[in-house]
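Cross-check.
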Amino acid sequence: MAIDSRQLVIGNWKMNGIAADLAEIEKIARNVGELRADIVICPPATLLHAAANITVGTRLSLGAQDCSSEQSGAYTGDISARMIVDCGARFVILGHSERRQYRGESDLIVKRKAEIALSVGLTPVICVGETEAERIGNETIAVLEKQLRDGLPSKSEHDHLVIAYEPLWAIGTGRIPDGNEILSAHRAIRGSLTDAYGSGGTEVSIVYGGSVKPENSAEILGLENVDGALVGGASLRAETFLKICAASRT
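Predicted model, tokenized:
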């Protein structure tokens, strides 16, 4: 686990949520006070500003699901890191497999976005993970090492960087790696982080994502070197998400 840090549980709403669903964020915000973990919700960008008004004064933090690789300019439809900060968010998910797969985002684009995010005070949550074919071919560690070698920001405030291990074959499928597979992946990630940042690499949080739900959250969050979880569909409803958050350890 990252040094002197609580576990971090991040809810990624993906392309879900309209104004009526802000009630779920309000329920989460009302109930995070006694939880041991640090909690983040990443709603769609259309809800960020309204969600910030709901969460002010609570322990619930907000994040965005992506940001532009440019600071500003003539990039119609893009959202800059500064705009995200202006909405009241503190985190931003970068390099999610769905962005890589459907939008063709490379490791170098992820790196550029992470560096811009850090420059305006956002904490990047950089996602890495292997396909099922790569897993079957015993390429998981090599894939993770390459994604991190090419995608990590050149310089980092280590307590303002999060890595999310999300095996692509586990996202939304209900399948997850076994404990040893998660531990092996997280050890490899930690090694890449210390290669990049020296002792500072021990301070970076590494969270697990991919079909995290109440039924398996205690087992996953109880694993050594798992600093939290990135939760997809199970974060859309406060009751389900809070059960996952409650499974965190100190």
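The chain has a mean pLDDT of 95. The beta strands are 8-12, 38-42, 60-64, 91-94, 123-128, 162-165, 205-209, 228-231. Passed to J.P. for a second look.
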